[in-house]
Design brief:
CATH superfamily: TonB-dependent receptor, beta-barrel domain
Distance between the termini: 32 Å
Structural class: mainly beta
Largest sheet: 22 strands, antiparallel, barrel
Strand content: over 45%
Number of strands: 46
Number of domains: 1
Length: 838
């Protein structure tokens, strides 16, 4: 038999196919070399190549993922859970809608051996995933015996930022004592200059009101007011980031039966951000209105002050995850145990300062000219110091810490017969989250000419490719070198402003959540022959017990603060079963069903309550029930050639209850009248269903010279039914869910050269619900990247990457496509790296 050695791109794609083929569960894998060589900015972007996974983008790259339309997923490192500083549902320390600090964006891809995505989890897998579990697996030293080392240096140029940055990676792996003891250490650090240009918003759209000065606020007479973009901002973000990571693994196998290890993983991202923008508050004196057919105010004139705005934001987010454990296996049984600790922390220091014209003037806006609104400050000169006043000072800080301590025990008894083994185990973990929030908001209205010189002229060449106009690329902002927080102008404050500047923690935004979760499982694995068909799989139960203590603050109408504590317990049984039918050597069918849960986002469990003087209030919801999902999966997979697969899968998820925002009247102790409270509650359920397709094949049947070609493509269709409706009564889909998603990778490889092109497209999706209960959507988004690598010698490789080649603008709209809410661009990024391996 002829022996064929497969290496390079084909090798790692073949390994991913084998991992999928051999798994009992519904599993997709991405192998490390494959991930490292593809043009992916981080782990989050690598995952979008898995059918059914869609990536949410922050500034300059992917940040979080949805799996089968669900954002409630679990991230593991080597099988243990890792969390963000803000707990479940946290998207990192950011002042912007699009997070840049999601957990998956923090993990440097060069430290990873493979990614595994479980779309339906067995009883032995950790609970908490409604969409799926992402397991980030790092390298182990005894997987590759001997001594090995790799050093990589990278230069990266950001076209929009106009900066060239550096990145390095180093790894050493060695085995000792007759290959029974191994050490692996790897580290990486990357500096990145990111810039975003475009139109953005904070308040977005709202409903027209009688205060806007229009003759009608309901042009079509349907009883629902039209919508207006209240807060149009042309902004530039300059972000200097550093991403660091260290992974270390010690492994000792003194015999074939015993395997002991110590494993630690550290990741950190820090950011120094400057943001500048122009704007105005759109209201009050609206004239010459032009409406769309959907009652969106598309053009008008107002008489309002014009603004320039400055934000300085320093952020950091880091986690350290460490575990010690081991396993012992005999012919009859195996035993494994692990102790793990994950500590995460994040911080954000934000200074926001607004300059504003001292007199209102005419401002004209027009949203009819494509996707870029035109805003004309007719009567304002934003470069003239004498026309401006300091209107707002906003000094804010947020600090979050979470600690997850876990102990796990697993036992498996091997058997003969149809039931091949029985597993049982337990996992106990405590999750402690502490959030501390401080906010000082001062409205001084000081004339700039009466203050010390704190301003400088912001000027940006070719801002937003010239589409925004000159007024939005040149204006006065705060000089960072002259600004030291709200205390900079302390000599000018009155006593009330002094007190605000020195304010301590915000009691409503500061809270502590302590949770203990105990889980127990039993699972049976089976393997039977039914005629010519081999059927294997597992079935089991997982019992989950949770106790939670939420400590917040109650703030009365007079501003009095008193701590308040809530205690909640939950218990749930989660059955699961999967069957894998090996119909032939090449054809596999899988069918499975499971019940899954995740507990509510940590921030929603805050026990705080703020009652205002008008008998309204704002409250957290510590007694929220967990999300429960019942799901079914079916897939058919044809492994028709070496390294090739064609598969199709369908799934269905029944969500028993979504969490929704409500405003309801409640009787609160200490108040004689009912209080109208804004609060999240468990609402109605919904359904998610979809189709996933995968095709992967090296085209070795082509003529010589072309037989190095290969392709991989995925397509997913996902649809949902939810209880969410907008102001017009239209049913909204799940946030983060695109109905259609396409990923295509084409590669060409010879012995010394390799080329790849990767394309991803997802269609419109709902991001959330905005003011006036209107849906906020992202338009379809396409991304194209390419790489080329040259193996100069057996040890030296040169790699070229080009990212974001289409320079697609990220466009957001409100309810209707003509209602542009946000439109930004990031520019291309080009990289060259040199890797030397021993």
């Amino acid at each position: 038999m002829e022996e064929i050695t497969v290496s390079g791109i084909r090798q790692v794609m073949a390994e991913a196919v084998d991992r999928k083929r051999d798994a009992t569960e519904f599993l997709d894998a991405i192998m490390a070399d494959d991930m490292g060589k593809l043009p992916d900015a981080n782990v989050a972007e690598s995952l979008q190549r898995v059918s059914g996974v869609q990536v949410d983008r922050g500034i300059g790259g992917g940040s979080d993922v949805s799996i089968r339309g669900m954002r409630q997923n679990v991230t593991l490192i080597n099988g243990r859970q890792v969390i963000e500083a803000g707990g479940r549902g946290s998207r990192g320390p950011d002042t912007l809608e699009g997070s840049s600090y999601g957990l998956l964006a923090q993990i440097p891809s060069k430290l990873v051996s493979r990614l595994e995505v479980y779309k339906q989890t067995p009883a032995s897998q950790i609970e908490g995933a409604l969409g799926g579990v992402v397991d980030v697996v790092t390298r182990r030293p005894l997987d590759n015996l001997g001594h090995h080392g790799t050093v990589s240096l990278t230069g990266a140029h950001s076209q929009l930022a106009g900066e060239t940055d550096s990145e390095w990676f180093a790894m050493y792996s060695g085995t000792f004592a007759d290959d029974t003891f191994g050490v692996l250490v790897s580290a990486t650090e990357a500096n990145q200059s990111v810039r975003e240009d475009g139109m953005n918003t904070f308040s977005g759209y709202g409903q027209l009101s009688s205060d806007d000065g229009l003759t009608t606020i309901d042009p079509n007479g349907d009883g629902v007011p039209g919508q207006i973009h209240r807060d149009m901002r042309f902004q530039q973000i300059e972000d200097e980031r550093k991403r660091s990571g260290v992974s270390a693994f010690l492994q000792w196998q003194p015999s074939d039966a015993l395997d002991l290890y110590a494993d630690t993983f550290f990741s950190e991202i820090t950011s120094d951000r400057n943001r500048y923008w122009t704007g105005f508050w759109n209201c009050c004196t609206i004239s010459n209105p032009v409406f769309s057919d959907n009652e969106t105010l598309m053009a008008a004139e107002v008489v309002r002050p014009a603004q320039t705005n400055t934000e300085f934001a320093d952020a950091s987010s880091a986690f350290t995850s460490t575990a010690i454990g081991g396993s012992y296996e005999t012919e009859r049984w195996s035993l494994s145990a692990e102790l793990a600790n994950t500590a995460a922390e994040s911080s954000m220091e934000q200074d926001f300062i607004r300059f504003q014209t001292q007199d209102a003037g005419k401002i004209a806006f027009d949203l009819r000219n494509g996707d870029v609104p035109q805003v004309d400050f007719t009567d304002a000169d934003l470069t003239n110091l004498d026309e401006l006043a300091l209107a707002i000072l906003y000094d804010k800080s947020t600090d979050k810490e979470s600690t997850d301590r876990a102990a796990r025990f697993d036992f498996e008894w091997f058997m003969e017969g149809a039931i091949t083994s029985v597993e049982l185990g337990a996992r106990s973990n405590t999750l402690e989250t502490d959030v501390r929030y401080r906010s000082a908001d001062i409205r001084p209205n000081f004339a700039l000419g009466d203050l010390p010189d704190i301003s400088t002229l912001f000027s940006s060449n070719n801002f937003f490719s010239g589409d925004a106009g000159d007024a939005h690329s040149r204006y006065l902002v705060v000089d960072k070198s002259a600004w030291q927080g709200c205390g900079t102008l302390a000599d000018f404050y009155d006593s009330e402003q002094q007190a605000i500047c020195n304010i301590g923690l915000d009691p409503l935004g500061s809270f502590t959540i302590d949770e203990s979760i105990d889980a127990y499982y039993v699972k049976a694995n089976y393997d039977v022959q039914l005629g010519d068909v081999i059927v294997s799989g597992d079935f089991g139960l997982r019992q989950v017990e949770r106790n939670m203590t939420s400590t917040g603050n109650a703030i009365d109408a007079d501003g009095g603060v008193s701590p308040t504590v809530a205690k909640v317990s939950n218990s749930e049984t989660l059955p699961s079963a999967v069957a894998k039918f090996d119909l032939s050597e090449d054809w596999v069918v899988r069918v499975g069903a499971a019940r899954a849960l995740t507990f509510p986002n940590t921030a929603d469990l805050n026990n705080g309550l703020h009652v205002f003087s008008d008998n309204t209030g704002q409250s957290g919801s510590p007694d929220l029930d967990p999300f429960i999902v019942n799901q079914m999966d079916l897939s058919s997979e044809w492994y028709f050639d070496s390294e090739a697969v064609l598969s199709a899968g369908v799934f269905f998820k029944d969500v028993e209850s979504f969490i929704v925002q409500t405003i309801q009247s409640k009787d609160i102790p200490g108040y004689s009248d009912p209080i109208t409270v804004a609060q999240k509650v468990n609402g109605e359920g919904g359904k998610v269903k979809g189709l996933e397709l995968l095709y992967q094949q090296p085209l070795t049947f082509l003529p010589a010279g072309w037989d190095g070609l290969g392709v991989m493509t995925t397509y997913s269709y996902t649809d949902s039914e939810t209880p969410f409706t907008d102001a017009n009564g239209a049913v909204l889909p799940l946030p983060g869910l695109s109905k259609h998603n396409v990923n295509f990778v084409s590669y060409y490889e010879t012995d010394n050269l390799g080329f790849r092109v990767a394309y991803n497209w997802r269609d419109d999706y709902l991001d959330g619900i905005g003011n006036g209960d209107s849906g906020i959507y992202y338009k379809d988004y396409a991304d194209l990247s390419a790489t080329a690598n040259w193996h100069v010698t057996d040890n030296l490789t040169v790699n070229l990457e080009a990212l974001n080649l289409l320079n697609t603008r990220q466009l957001q709209y409100n309810a209707y496509s003509e209602a542009t809410r946000r439109n930004v661009e990031y520019g291309q990024i080009y990289k060259v790296s040199f890797t030397y391996a021993l």
